[in-house]
Amino acid sequence: MRTYWNTANGLRTMENWEPNCWVQVTCPTQDDLDFLEKDLKIPDYFLMDIADTDERARYEFDEGWILIILRIPYVKEVRSRTPYTTIPLGIIMNKEVCITVCNFETNMMIDFVSYQQKRGVGFTDSVDLVFRLFLSSAVWYLKRLKQINTLIEKAKQNLDRNVDNADLINLSRLQDSLTYFITSIRGNETLLSKLKFKLPIDELDADLIEDVNIEMSQARETTSIYANILDSTMDTYANLINNNMSSVMKMLTSISIILMFPTLVASLFGMNLVNGMEQSPWGFPLAIGITVIVTALFMWFFRRKTWI
Q: Does the global pTM surpass 0.90?
């Protein structure tokens, strides 16, 4: 699906493409790809790079075309090992063309368009659009991080009541998500620092870049903090599990040792040997008494050592 936006004074949709408009392509169909390649003459490998979900944040120049790949946060609708991840957003520009291509429909782009329409100012040029997309991605990283933190706190509360495998698995999945976030944010920061010297920037763009740097730094630091908290939490519950297992094993070992003494006494008196009590009516009660006394002594000793 593609949408043409007039960006002169606010965002307004257009019926057809015109020079210097913003072309927003979301979940491109074959017709959209044909339009980009044949009508706008965009290099086909640009679109192939954007379609690669593992493509890193970077920029590329080719015969007057500029390709910028920005990593943005994305929440998977279906159940996945990494519910929060990042995907590439491609920005393609030349003197008269400005295109954004994303192979997924994201809340970030929907919110970006809505906010710019409410703002009612539009974009001064394509460079302004690029840096505002950087700013929007940083803001949305912070929003997703708040959601992740809420899930972490909820899982921790459940684990405080009962250590459950499902909650530990959920924490592990969030840990993977934070790894994707911090890698992508660092890549975006590196890309931003390079673009400052590659794109024509005016005074307004410089102020906007400063805002982007602040938001990016906050997102990176917040991700690092949550990742450290999650690592500490996982280590704590792993130690609790090991401690509980050690307590159970100690208990079972103590019980096995205590049960060994009645078995030993019964084995000694049950041997086919002369022990002097074969004909005595007190033979069996004596064996039982010795068993009870020995067992009680060892139970007292184990309790004193806090082994049971």
A: no
